[in-house]
Amino acid sequence: MEQKKQQEEEQELNPCPICLGPVKQEAYLDRCFHKFCYNCIARWAKHVAGLHSQAQFTLKCPYCRSDNNSIVYECEGDYFQRHYLNNDPTESAFFSKAHKFRLRCYYCEPAGAIYDKFNVQRFWKLRKYLQPNKWLQVWLKREIQALTQEEDVDVVVYHILGSIESFTRQNKREHSKRTIEDFKALIFDAAMPFLIGRTKRFVNEIELFLVSGLNIEAYDEVYLQCVKMVTSGAVHEDDEERLQEVNGQLPYLHFFDEDSDN
Length: 262
Fold this sequence. Notes:
- The protein has 2 domains: 2-86, Herpes Virus-1, CATH 3.30.40; 93-244, no CATH class.
- Helix content is 49%, strand content 9%.
- It is built from 11 helices and 6 strands.
- Strand 1 and strand 2 form a beta hairpin.
- Helix 3 (97-105) packs across helix 11, helix 6 packs across helix 7 and helix 8 (180-195) crosses helix 9 (199-212).
- The longest helix has 18 residues, at 154-171.
- The chain is elongated, with a radius of gyration of 21 Å.
């Protein structure tokens, strides 16, 4: 009872800046992180778009006036939804079939099947993580581009690579006692500000890629087979094409776009 009263008081102190009432279905703008009712901010975005003759790809926060690219909502545990603003497919040619395939991977659960393909415990026991992986930087860039749907992610990639290299240097010391859990915690902390709800799964995906020892194309093929096993062969035809043409270009995706009236 006391906790409910405290929540009500908090809502009164922090109302939605648009309707000035208690926030319903919390939603955040992705850059400034100001909180609104989802319907309020979605309708605001539609209203602002209607004032311009050309499509708008950013939205000024009605509270602080900073530019934002998307509305984040339904944040529950490790999952969230994202509504992008008027993305034009012709403006995002960098998003390839490989990006599309990798983003789809985050919406299925082939973890058990793919872990069976590789000996994870042996990888850590033999300290193979100390060996450099020449494909890691390119794989990380594609992975983060797929998750954020943004092209320029070099800063994020170098930040995460720096964390991995720091862990590797420390473990090259003879008496280092840092564990797998330490590695995952380090990467989680580095990636969390950028990937938010997808961070935990992203850390597991990094481990799988490192353990596999495969190049990007071979790893994708193994992963696709595992996805097929989990989904009983129900794999989108674009994924099959991707294996034939890994570098083919694909228009920008709209995975979370919704009509704000719904």
